[in-house]
Amino acid sequence: MAETPKIRFGFIGCAEIARKVSRAVALAPNAALHAVGSRSLDKARAFATANGFPAGAKVYGSYEAVLDDPEVDVVYLPLPTSLHVRWAVLAASKKKHILLEKPVALNVAEFDEIIAACESNGVQLMDGTMWMHHPRTSKMKEFLSDVNRFGQLRSIHSNFTFTADVNFLENDIRVKPDLDALGALGDEGWYCLRAILWAANYELPKTVIASRKPQHNQVGVLLSCGATLCWEDGKVATFHCSFLSNLTMDISAFGTKGTLHVHDFIIPYEEKEALFYAATDTGFDEGVTKWVPQPNKNVIKTDIPQEALMVNEFARLVADIKFNNAKPEKKWPTISRKTQLLVDAVKASIDRGFEVIRIQE
């Protein structure tokens, strides 16, 4: 039986995150680095050389040339968020499947344009939220879904922060209103809101209200913010994201019988293993001197890192479409859209003076 050909990736842009994804494509068993395009041919050539593109890879001095390459199956799009709708819609019109960096758009209306273009052209769409593809994530979900060990979900808390240096705060695209106007909310808050949705089985909350005193830079881009999300059944979630605090990447989920804690959910402490803590029916000993039973430490190992697992899953979906006439999987754009809805709601609450925003799909 003939081996299924590898899915060929073309890169549109040479952003810093593209270095990590190019390595992921090289590590994924069913994907191949085929092309890279930049507005500068020299920049594209230097990127290909520095990031392990094979000798036969195509190097282009424009984004359009990547889209016009008939051998490119997938385009990876790490461009600034303000450019996503333009280039994703064009890529879909060229029948290219799209791995799209997060946040997927500046607002859900823009993302709906991308979804419509992908659906009308029969192409697969997935965002680049890598931690979703780590085997730890499915193991944690098993615990959250176990009514005997975890019970019913009651609250979720998530944080993602890091201390940005002066150069980042002055020059990074994530602090430029014309490039990534969502700032910390789009960059870090995306992960927190995705974690909240994931823990809640992607059930959208009914209301969102932003935390007071978010921090902006001089041109109005968010550097730090948070929010509270509420469901009709009483569930509540909070998150905080910031470019101004030490590195944290936490999820805590609390159920009627159990608790889940993970402190490195976005990028694991170690590349090929990750851990989480799970506790059930926890209390104290008779003298109230220690916890009984103590939380279990669960270590999950993987042969390839989570970003390569993401590429592998995306390439698998594309291969199924290309070789087996399958339909694009709607799960991933649906999850992306719900995450974008919550990003929009937090921003709207901030912009409207911390008004309670009701979520409508």
TrEMBL record:
Transmembrane parts of this sequence: none
Entry's Gene Ontology molecular function annotations: nucleotide binding
InterPro entries according to UniProt: Gfo/Idh/MocA-like_OxRdtase_N, GFO_IDH_MocA-like_dom, NAD(P)-bd_dom_sf
Positions of the GFO/IDH/MocA-like oxidoreductase domain: 147-260
Residues annotated as domain Gfo/Idh/MocA-like oxidoreductase N-terminal: 7-126
Classification via Gene3D superfamilies: Dihydrodipicolinate Reductase, domain 2, NAD(P)-binding Rossmann-like Domain
Sequence similarity: Belongs to the Gfo/Idh/MocA family.
Name this polypeptide is given: Gfo/Idh/MocA-like oxidoreductase N-terminal domain-containing protein
